[in-house]
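Researcher: Please translate sequence to structure tokens.
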Amino acid sequence: MNYEHILYSVDNGILTVTLNRPDKLNAFTHTMLRELLDAMDKADADDDVRVIIFTGAGRGFCAGADLSAGAGSFDHAGEDDRTADTHRDGGGLLTLRLYESRKPLIAAINGAAVGVGVTMTLPMDIRLASSEARFGFVFARRGIVPEAASSWFLPRIVGVSQALQWAYSGRVFPAAEALQARLVNEVLAPDDLLPRARAIASEIVDNTSAISVTMIRHMLWRMLSEDHPMAAHRIDSRSIYELGQSADAKEGVSSFLEKRAPKFPGKVSRDMPGFFPWWETPKF
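Model: Translation complete:
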């Protein structure tokens, strides 16, 4: 697919996906959605991609949905014969795909992140913000509700009380407030944002097993919905047993004992343990 609304660039194991409508503050479109979904499929299938960074071109990250259709921008009645039962929220299609990612996801939020511009970052694993970034769960001010499965993600990240306060008011707030509430991990000077994101990504690329990182990503996210630590114990035990026999585990120990950088041979495309994805298997 040729991309119109995003840029896709891989360098040293790091994929940078840039939302690329700078004249519109990277407002979210159906084209952007299709391209982001395609980019995720492409990245997951590419063993040369170890970490994905998302950022925005120009002075915005994503100013929310493109409202160029005017007052009817959110009216999908009759569109493609969809009904209330068959309509699927575009932001949710994206966040659910991000949730399924086999690669770590880093948001480098360089400017305004409002509406879907902020909810799309919630299933990302690490969120970094420029000091110039602004955030807003503005849905109540547009007469709609939070989308992109953010009613599931947001309370898990910042707690239900903070999530409700932001969603009730719909106000736009600064990066410092986002940091205080742990919506973002760090706030950086604008020129330091992407270098910091790349430094975090490089640490993962240079030092870790791709198999281990994929397993860890899904173990931590999926355990959020379990109601007893026994679920974690089961998957921990199975993972240690099977991965402990792997070439990556042998390399991890050998490189440590030999005091050298590891060279893990495992590939996510071919070497994931046989029980992965365990959440699709009834016995788990």
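Researcher: Any highlights?
Model: The longest helix spans residues 30-44.
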